[in-house]
Amino acid sequence: MTPSPTPVRFTATLRTLAMNYCVDVPAAASRALAGDPPERYVRVEGAANGHPFTTRLTPRGGGAYRVFLDGSVRAAAGIGVGDEVAIEVVRAAGPPEPPLPDDLREALSGLDGGVEAFAALTEAQRTGMLAFVERARTASTRARYVERVVDEVRRRAGG
């Protein structure tokens, strides 16, 4: 099942979880937004009682999610703990992922299935590894960083 590009609507009770405020997303809405099998974190844009927000769905177990609502959204929506909240959310496009640099692509190509294993990592893992390589100030440091990323991809791929 592919995630729904159309808005998903539901009503939920605002509650606290530690010092955060959230609503639980019903199972059917979770499946519609996250897909099956579900993605771990899903960027969404939506509205709480008609007041816009942008966030990520956060897993709560069993393929279900929750939406955390910050103070500005709660204030604009006029909601507090225990209030019923009308939620409307749709998947949001994320920022484009940076391209795989040629030197890293070449190094990953030397690893059997390396480019595919890198692509199978989460977006956050890939972005973090790319940022790590880009932080290198010299060519020799960059080469070491590229090798460290290849080693990490090999380790995560079980090789």
Task: Explain what the structure shows.
By secondary structure, this protein is of the alpha+beta class. It contains 6 helices and 7 strands. Helix 3 crosses helix 6 and helix 5 runs antiparallel to helix 6. The model has no long low-confidence stretch (mean pLDDT 90).
Shape: elongated
Task: Could you tell me the CATH topology label of the largest domain.
Answer: Elongation Factor Tu (Ef-tu), domain 3
Largest sheet, in brief, is: 7 strands, antiparallel
What is the count of β-strands? 7
Work out the helix count.
Answer: 6
Structural class: alpha+beta
Radius of gyration: 20 Å
* Helix content, binned percent: 25-40%
Mean pLDDT: 90
- What is the chain-wise order of helices and strands? EEEHEEEHEHHHH
Classified by CATH, the class of the largest domain is Mainly Beta
The termini sit apart by: 31 Å
Give me the CATH architecture of the largest domain, please.
Beta Barrel
For the record, what is the CATH homologous superfamily label of the largest domain? AF2212/PG0164-like
> What topology, given as strand order, has the largest sheet?
1-7-4-5-6-3-2
Report the sheet-strand fraction.
25-35%
Residue windows where pLDDT falls under 50 for at least 5 positions: none
Provide the number of structural domains.
2
